[in-house]
Amino acid sequence: MVKVETIASANVSVSSSSRVSAHTHITGLGLDENGDAIVPMVGNEQAATMNTSGLVGQTAAREALGIVSDLVHSQRLAGRALLLVGPPGTGKTALAMGLAQEIGSHQSNKLPFCAMVASQVFSREVKKTEVIMEHFRKAIGLRIQERKEVYEGEVTELTVEETEDPLGGYGRTISHVILGLKTAKGSKTLKLDPTIHDSLSKEGVAVGDVIYIEANSGAVKRVGRSDSFATEFDLEAEEYVPIPKGDVHKQKTVIQDVTLHDLDMANAHPSSGSSSSGQRDVASLLKSMGKPKKTEITDKLRGEINKIVEQYINQGIAELVPGVLFVDEVHMLDMECFTYLNRSLESPIAPIVVFATNRGVTTIRGTEPNNIKAPHGIPIDVLDRMLIVPTLPYSVQEMIAICQIRAKTENLNLSDDAFRLLGAIGQKTSLRYAIQLLTPANIIAETQGRSQILPDDVSQVDDLFMDGKASAKFLLSNESVGFMS
Predict the structure, then answer these.
(1) pLDDT averaged over the chain?
(2) Which intervals hold domain AAA+ ATPase (predicted)?
């Protein structure tokens, strides 16, 4: 028997195992069992070890989104809108990502989450309203539950019966397939149509495999090799599964989660296999989702899909699962988009929409030449439909805590003085700029043969680079004459 030992590598980097992005450290909203925000003790290593799900500060906003998460899972907030407002760099997108993680953490009740930036609606190829509706329907799920007749068991016999080719010649053709299936309760021999032989061959089914066959469609699925054929080798090329329990012929419940956009794309090019009555079963709807094509989806088609979905819901076959649509930089939308949003939010199958913006009183796009101004660049009638959650600027201690979490995520080692200097730089410039200095400072430390980042390294990269505020101040000063004209 071959002995296999696993040896841990001494030089395992974060970048080799997983890619670190701007919000990799966000794993939830950081709430306790009572729905209160967990507040770490900032200023030491405890900030990076407490289970805050990567979020620091913004306690009121986190607790508000925690209530929203509960309402979404209870499906009591569909068709509502939420607005996150605050200065740049105050964690609006991070809070939306935390809400998405919080919603997705319920394994028994997973909900769709779709994110977009408002500037995506501007395209020469697709209408603005089409882009909005497409993302709306990506955020609305449909949980389809079907009871199917299946034959399941371990293959005990697989015989292909051939006969003379009816067209003549020397060839022979398959007349039928004899398949023996065995479970813990009994066994059965099946006589199958020759067309199923192709599915059996494609799955590589052999005697001793555990398979199941759908009675209505003839689809074959190879589950694995029966564990009665398992050996004592440490390394096995096969996946061994236990022999199924119950009868060979049984009723099985199959649950599939799709979005309304998936159904739209699947039916944009109707297959020739649809019935003459115009109704299609769930299997044919899902089967046509395999090869989506770029096409214009009309309101008439979406209306027909909605009728079919409503029919499935009334029959108890499917359940509508409204999710969350996150729209960042909502002030980029124009008057036409806001008017369409008003109508879309009133739809009976609408998700909860979370908007985010960093603008105050500004001009509503699309109102030229009058240039009508409104809070956050959103018309008042749309703003009245929203629950507004403000985000506040971070304190120095909170910036230090966030830098500690990011340093741990990026596997960086900083001294306490370096963290304090980063907090001071973030207070003077912005949190985004302070976090961006982490990796360059690490490179400076490595070139000097050190694994720990010191305040001198942070000061050196701060002198090399310029933040947005410093750049604007320089351009407004007399020193910039002739620099950019």
Answers:
(1) 80
(2) 78-393
